[in-house]
Amino acid sequence: MDILEEVKERLAYFNASVAHVHVETALEPDAGAYVDELPLDPKLKEVLKGLKYARLYKFQEEAVKEVLKGNNVLIVSGTGTGKTEAFLIPVLQFALKGERSVLVYPTKALARDQLSRVMEFAKGLGVGVAVLDGDTPREERKRIYSDPPEVLITNPDMIHRSLTLSPDFRELIRGSKHFVFDELHVYEGVLGSHLRMLMDRIREFQGDVQVISSSATIGASPYMFEGLFGLPGKVIYGSTRRKGTAFHVLVNSNGISRWTLSAFLASFLVNKGMKVLAFVDSQQMAELTAKIAKRFGVDLEVHRAGILPEERIKVEERLRRGEIPGVVATPTLELGIDIGSIDAVVMAENPPSYSKYLQRAGRAGRRNRAGYVFTIMGEDPIDSYFLRRPEEFFNRKLSPLPFDTSNLEVVKVHALAFLLEKKAERLEAFPELWRKALLLLEKEGVVKIVNGVVYSTRKAMEVFQRSSLRSSGPIVKVYHGDKKVAERELPVALYDLYPNAVYLASKKTYVVESLDLARLVAKVKKVEEDLPYYTKPLYSVDLKGFKELESRKVYNLPVKYGEVSIEISVRGYVVHDIYSKRERSAGEFEYDDPITFSYTTKGMIIKHPLLSEFSLVDGIEAYHATEHVLIHAGRVVAGASLTDLSGISYPSGHVVIYDSSVGGSGVSKLLYERLEDAYEVAKDIVEKCDCEDGCPKCVYDPYCGNNNKFLSRRKSLRLISEVMKGEVPKEEDVWGESVR
């Protein structure tokens, strides 16, 4: 508590304050059966007792028994409560019977990180364990294929590529009976869609395998399990909280830059002798926060996607060995990679979802040490909402994973991969959605269909080699001279790599010289000095097409959900001063020729009423503000991140909210299903704000394409209040020009 008092004192220098402290204490999960009472091989019982597992927790016992019966299960229990043992014990029992299990971890780094833990259990049993991924040497691969281990550790990317390219790998995978997917919370959005298609390929659509999965932070259901794996499954719950004690602190930034406060707080804690992990959700903000920390006298390393894998691995190793005091990371360090004991976590912003909050918070205070978790709350609508209701922040329900199994961009990747594996296949052998994807691939010249049989073309292997499970959109490569320094997926790349944008990579500052969308290449030049400003794009978005999939009434409003065709035009950029107390624009710059990108995704259209007292400008301000605040509300009711959803508003009252990723992520569908709840949260935001008529605490959006013009909190409140009465008159469906 002395640390918290010092933090309060130091934050006062910035006119910031500790808004709320939540103390988390959790006891051991309920006790279950003794190991000797379980239906396990005597050798396995002796190994477990030798590792101090004389008795299991109740949820572990239930999981072990269900898995040994051959049932599919999802194990949900808090960090450090023993999820790994719950699936590893039955996997080792299967191994002693000669049955092979595949342990699938979401990343190569995490898979290799878990090897020593699995070996600790397996070494006394004579059970074979091996890691097979892109880094496995050729001789080791040959040994694995000739003498397969009972426990194989790999990752989804390896399965995706090797099912297509390696007959030996196919035999190994399809000869396995049990598949374990750990850290299941990672498989949201596009990655979740890829996982479902990958499981269809593993099973060849109808094969019989057993699936075991686990997560510390997930809102689970049997319906979600079946959607993700294509098989029925049972959910087993352990403790909802991690073991141990943690102090969770909400910090009111009071308008001060969150990056400055986070850098200061991380630096202060490091100087108090703590090992610190600071989280941000933007690659560019990770670089910026590390730069600011250096001004406070502490050199924090950066760990994020987009930099070279060997650089990330080096940071992990140095942090684990205690050679560096702290790291600024994007969600790349949310997972359970061993980085040693972390004393404190600093979150520069309220994480995208409660699941991610718990995952990040769980990195602090492991190994029976109290942890400190600081979250910087800014002036945005959701942070203001939770500062008014801090206990609600810590008592939220976990949302189910959002993913869209009908994402055709994802299905195309796997339909092509499966076809290349089979060489040729009758079109009717594929499921209906896969057939639709193959017809699209035929139009693109990637496959050809002759007399009902699908064949690949010369273009097919090239397209497959470019495919990725981590994205659904095209990838832009970033070059400094001839050296690739980073890469970004479209459409997000448009918002980072527009001409004259300040782009940060590996704590180096670059300015974008050009962006070539045809070649998917961005050229940057290095700037030796630290620039005192950063940039944000000015852009407009328009709806080019909509195909309705379903519809419903929300407070008597007509709402449609379906496939959305979007066109983005980046027309310039805004300059912001890094060190100003408030994030104000220092100038706008327009291009002669906008940069445009079009894609198809999923989303909804809401038709709001045209209120009689509203002029045309009043309506524009009301609909635009309501679009923003509904997207903000999606963070509470649908677990959306800041960049998961985008929107457009029209003077006609139409508001379009859609998934930002190509093909769709499932987040807008979840918001569509919970739209009544979203209006409740939206009303609270616009009703409780104390600004005159619009500010960052209510209706401003940091990603607004027109720099937050044409917004009114009061008119949005008037509109939402009228909508929630449920007495909306029927009107003609007339459209107008988009505001954003």
UniProtKB/TrEMBL annotation:
GO molecular function, one term: ATP binding
Keyword entries, A-Z: ATP-binding, Helicase, Hydrolase, Nucleotide-binding
Record domain Helicase C-terminal: where: 260-409
Any Gene Ontology biological process: nucleotide-excision repair
Domain Helicase ATP-binding positions: 64-236
Matching InterPro entries: DEAD/DEAH_box_helicase_dom, Helicase_ATP-bd, Helicase_C-like, MZB, P-loop_NTPase
SMART domains on file: DEXDc, HELICc
Residues in the signal sequence: none
UniProt name for this protein: DEAD/DEAH box helicase
Native source organism of the sequence: Candidatus Aramenus sulfurataquae
